Amino acid sequence: MKGKFLIIALLFTVPVVKAQQTEAVGVSPWGPEDEIGTLNMMSEASRLQVLLQISSGKIYDLSVDYFVGMPSFHSLGDPGYQYWLTHTPHGTIVDNPNGRGEEMNQKVSYTGDAVSMYTHMGTHIDALNHFGLNGKIWNGFTEEKYLGDKGWKKTGAETIPPIISRGVLIDVEGQIGPLPKNYRITSADLRKTLKLQQITLKKGDVVLIRTGQARFYQDAGQYLDQYPGISLDAVKWLVEEKQIMLLGADNLSLEAFPPEIEDNWVPVHTYLLAEKGVMFIEQMFLEDLAADQVYVFAFMAASLKLKGASGAPMRPLAIPVNKD
């Protein structure tokens, strides 16, 4: 595991230096003040169109549980998930914090709790300030001007709007078979899977990639171990050719580790967030959708409005729709 996390650490350092020669952050076609990138593709009309296609009352919950010991990047120095009780029924009787006395506190019990966590844990969305390139983030915003002690003044998680759109599941593991460790899903894999599922992508879709890794979520060691993920080739095909709006996957960080190393290479994170303004959701639960072969659906999600943050917990939902 130590070797694996060393590789992850290298993802954030050496390869990006090479990328500085040719890569640059994206300039938003939605204007100099844009902070949400491709989520601008949504409109009231597009949301309504999807909602009118709902064909079932069944809801698929695409989020994972939060629990002590859950998978995270704590080995890189980020805090793990912590949970503790601040009040218990018996403790309230003993401490009498409300001054109501033992008899009243025995009658009306009271439990309170608190959590502490890294914002990129569990099912969450990455904001556009999460990764940058050559000293800038999406739309040319710089940390010198826009990063304060209390977070970013631009592209913070609070700017992410509620998302309602057509969603598509690309069940790579289900159609191609179990993926080898560290396998990089290619654009050819995506095209093959979509053909087998008899699905065509549309501009503005939310595309969810299933690797099958969510089956191991309760076992952090197995979930983190050289998991497969999407390649730079595949995301370029999705973004540049198919013009999708949002991405998601069921592994720790969308792309595979160890990373691809080549000239002018940038992480998938950097390409999507800094260059193309495409946000994405990580650590999703896609097993039920895949089991029921629900490949097209109404996708709905909203994240916590954590001001200035680089990411936020999210609870996405999928509801079946009529076939096109």
Strand content: 15-25%
SSE string: HHHEEHHEEHEEEHEHEHEHEHEHEEE
The strands making up the biggest β-sheet line up spatially as 1-15-13-7-9-11-12-4-14
Number of strands: 15
What is the CATH topology descriptor of the largest domain? Glucose Oxidase, domain 1
Number of domains: 2
Radius of gyration from CA coordinates: 21 Å
Highest-level CATH class of the largest domain: Alpha Beta
- Major beta-sheet overview: 9 strands, mixed
**CA distance, first residue to last residue:** 45 Å
Coarse shape: globular
Average pLDDT: 91
Structural classification: alpha/beta
The total of helices stands at: 12
- Report helical residue fraction: 25-40%
Per CATH, the superfamily of the largest domain is: Putative cyclase
Give the low-confidence spans. Answer: 1-21
Which second-level CATH architecture of the largest domain applies?
3-Layer(bba) Sandwich
Task: Write structural notes for this entry.
This protein is α/β, with parallel strands linked by helices and 324 residues long. The chain has 2 domains: 2-68 and 119-320, 3-Layer(bba) Sandwich (Glucose Oxidase, domain 1); 82-116, no CATH class. It contains 12 helices and 15 strands. The chain has helices spanning 2-11, 14-19, 44-51, 89-95, 101-107, 143-146, 172-176, 187-197, 220-224, 232-241, 268-275, 287-291, and strands at 60-61, 82-87, 112-116, 124-126, 147-148, 151-152, 163-171, 184-185, 206-210, 229-230, 246-249, 280-282, 296-301, 311-313, 317-320. The strands form 4 sheets. The protein has a 9-stranded mixed beta sheet. Helix 4 (89-95) runs antiparallel to helix 5 (101-107) and helix 8 crosses helix 10 (232-241).
